[in-house]
Design brief:
The structure is a homodimer. By secondary structure, chain A is of the alpha+beta class. Chain A contains 11 helices and 15 strands. In chain A, the strands form 2 sheets. In chain A, strands 1, 2, 3, 4, 5, 6, 7 and 9 form an 8-stranded mixed beta sheet that branches. Chain A has a 7-stranded mixed beta sheet with strand order 8-15-10-14-11-12-13, with helices on both faces. Chains A and B meet through helix 2, helix 8, helix 9, strand 13 and helix 11 of A and helix 2, helix 8, helix 9, strand 13 and helix 11 of B.
Amino acid sequence: MTNTIPTPHLPRGFYATGVAAQIKKNGQPDVALIASDRDCAAAALFTTNKVKAAPVLYDQAVLASNNTTIRGVIINSGCANACTGEQGLTDCRETAESVAHSLALNQIMAGAIDATQVLVMSTGVIGVNLPMGKLKNGAQSASMELTTDGLEAAARAIMTTDTVQKIACAELRAEGQTYTIAGIAKGSGMIHPNMATMLSVVMTDAAIDAENLKAALTQAGNVSFNHISVDGDTSTNDTLLLLANGASGVSVDTPEKVSAFQSALTDVCISLAKQMARDGEGATKFITISITGAPDMRTAENVGRTIAKSPLVKTAFYGEDANWGRIIAAAGYSGEEVYPDRMALWFGPVMVFEHGMPTRYSEEEATRAIQMHDVEVRLDLGTGTTSTTIWTCDLSHDYVTINGKYRT
Amino acid sequence: MTNTIPTPHLPRGFYATGVAAQIKKNGQPDVALIASDRDCAAAALFTTNKVKAAPVLYDQAVLASNNTTIRGVIINSGCANACTGEQGLTDCRETAESVAHSLALNQIMAGAIDATQVLVMSTGVIGVNLPMGKLKNGAQSASMELTTDGLEAAARAIMTTDTVQKIACAELRAEGQTYTIAGIAKGSGMIHPNMATMLSVVMTDAAIDAENLKAALTQAGNVSFNHISVDGDTSTNDTLLLLANGASGVSVDTPEKVSAFQSALTDVCISLAKQMARDGEGATKFITISITGAPDMRTAENVGRTIAKSPLVKTAFYGEDANWGRIIAAAGYSGEEVYPDRMALWFGPVMVFEHGMPTRYSEEEATRAIQMHDVEVRLDLGTGTTSTTIWTCDLSHDYVTINGKYRT
């Protein structure tokens, strides 16, 4: 059993595509469709925001009654279908019906599909109703254009302020057979733990029951998408969906196989999450914050996230100013028990802070350590043995530009 | 008994000044000295950051043993004396000794002053030791230049990235006599509840015992400085100090007089806090966020602060984009129980959101409501009768510029 990093591709039995349905003003692709030629077990994680967009509420209801025979998911960008009241839910239902109908007309899909086998996701501006005519036309075209090499096209069609598509893939062998885990994601602003403005669909051709699927997804989501932060805003639409259709012939049904699946799924999710932080709105730097020496995981995560969220820390990185005091100050206001005398801080290999005060570091070396595109920061709390990693990006002039005029 | 808004002036018995001691590289005033010709009762609120700067630790120790005979406070800008270990505390002690010595040489001060009667405050870069020679020279000059009209000079000398000095003043009458409450403050970035990078000294010539003083300050601080947010960062140095020297002959010693004092003190603190939010780093707008219809104060404050902190909300105001969805989304991730269907949102007079979806508002009118310099936002939660107000500013390109290169 080995993981390889293959050329990204859809797992067997999955088809995808992306089309331009004119929902986005700029004419870019805005409708992605993913479908499986057989039933999928499904698991999903959703935003913790109390204001949940219609597609989130809709998918939660669908999955509560059917997490074993999902056949497809349609994702539109350009309109979030959030804060849209009853009409928003009606639009979700109508979209799913339309997709079920169109999909059934494609011979690949081999027969009838019910609306309750289709999930919907949306991302984009809040408070605007879905343009149903355009969306249904898009769904119809997409249903006819599904291909086994449509992974990248789907990844492109779900982008909003993203500058690059985000794809990750792993291949595993079990009992002489190969299976694949492949995922796409979007998200670059409004990114913060407990799900960000992110949508992600991960697919596998392994067979794995819904219960194990949910457990594996929860664990993978916690250490990947919940470990990135762009701006500390949590959106109304976040969804991470995992579909398993069993087309590879591999059943993930022993503790060893579950463990291998978990590990590869976590790798795929971490890869997608890091791609999101790297593509943070206006980002010029990708910042890895390692918290070590923590008494427990909650402390490590909260300190790391507080640092990752601090506008003062993020602007200092943008300005390539080795202003370590802001990191120590952020740790101090994280709400966790930290002790200045016990903390130690590194920029790359350069230790800049220890015993409650700056070391005799070279300002030049410290600056050089943060002048890279990929910056590594390590804060040791000196109060335990737990470590974790949070990924983030800097806060630039372009972030302000992008978000000052998002709707225009 | 009436409050008036007088020309700002020091209360009787107080003297102040500001001098340039070359601690700041740009030669601007950087040492403020405030002194009283008689003993003051004193109360203070300090940062909740676990990483407390040396002057915070030092003043906490001084006030723990003496909150009845304080005579002066020296404040330097340009160096925070934070993360400076034992040396930082030694420098505080030496500064207080030096000020006590210099003050005693000024005839106004009428006699010997002990180091335990002097408080110290610092603001500026973290992790750098105080330049003691410069500071002591500054203290010496300032001691000789104290005047009764030095309020503005002191306010100027404590500025860092502030663009204007911040002063507030109230006059009260009691029993045929007049007394004054006057305060200065600094702070424009790293501003968030539980004290920001802010220093403030409020003085009164009323006599009021230390216990009542602390109670009044705590109440005033909660609804003023703890109700503003610039960037969500809480600093290592925040201090709000209140001194009462009794020189007016008025004793605040009855419930009625305490109540009048409380009310005027709160007004002074709110005025200073609003001046800080208005002067937020790079701010182009002053934003008043009213939360109404909340079930309790904690909910109202948390929802208001989450909105005030959201980079997406703040950049939208900067871009004059009436993107109300971001405000609703921020309320949703505040961690408080909010219900989309019950919330209603106004930009100025324009209701933009109700019953879980946008009203039929005019985009033009909504945009006009946020094109002002002073923007009013009201969010009614629809779950109770408690209201509160949070003040903040927008997030601009200049914020990024200022904070990308703060140390250079």
